Amino acid sequence: MAKRCDICGKGPMVGNNVSHAHNLSKRRWLPNLQKVRVTIDGKTKRMTVCTECIRSGKVQKAA
After folding, report:
1. pTM
2. DSSP letter at 51?
């Protein structure tokens, strides 16, 4: 599964873990993605959508 929202395109972000001694190691922040049944043009489709799109109403969930 791709770690990308099908609606807004949100994907992983990268940065550093920073220890107390200021040692840096790479890390990733993954978006909170959910598999949701969505109604598009009267048809039901399964999509991978971030929770921000679900909460904001950009997605119409299938009944």
Report:
1. 0.81
2. H
